[in-house]
Amino acid sequence: MKVLLLMEKTTTGYSAWAPDLPGCVAAGATLEGTERLMREALEFHLEGMRKAGSVPPEPTTLATWVEVDDTSGG
After folding, report:
1. Alpha helix (H) residue ranges in 9-70
2. Which of 31, 32, 36, 42 is least enclosed, having the fewest CB within 10 Å?
3. Model confidence pLDDT, tens digit, residues 15-65
4. What is the rounded distance in angstroms from the CA atom of residue 74 to the CA atom of residue 13?
5. Is residue 63 domain-resident?
6. Up-side HSE of residue 29: CA atoms within 13 Å toward CB?
7. How many domains are there within the chain?
8. Of all helices (H) and strands (E), which one includes residue 15?
9. pLDDT above 70 for 74
């Protein structure tokens, strides 16, 4: 299962979350460590959902980058 993972810089390292799995988050000192912790959190979260009789949702979140002109001043 592919899950979109969003990561952001914090004052102490990085945080991560998955928009398609609310409540599943992780934080770490490095990008690599945060990604590893988030993979573990995702596996734990999905296992818990299955044990509770819930079906993990199909991912629906999309992401893309766009360029904008930030020199117009206006």
Report:
1. 31-51
2. 32
3. 999 999 999 999 999 999 999 999 999 999 999 999 999 999 999 999 999
4. 34
5. no
6. 0
7. 1
8. strand 14-17
9. no
How far is Cα 6 from Cα 56, in angstroms, rounded to an integer? 18
Residue 1: name the closest of 60, 64, 59 by CA.
59
Question: CA of 26: how far to CAs of 56, 59, 67, 69, 70, in Å?
Answer: 19, 19, 29, 33, 32
Residue 68: inside a domain: no
pTM for this structure? 0.83
Task: Kindly state whether residue 57 falls inside one of the protein's structural domains.
Answer: no
The amino acid that residue 74 corresponds to is G
Q: Which domain holds residue 12?
A: 6-51
Indicate whether 1 belongs to any domain: no
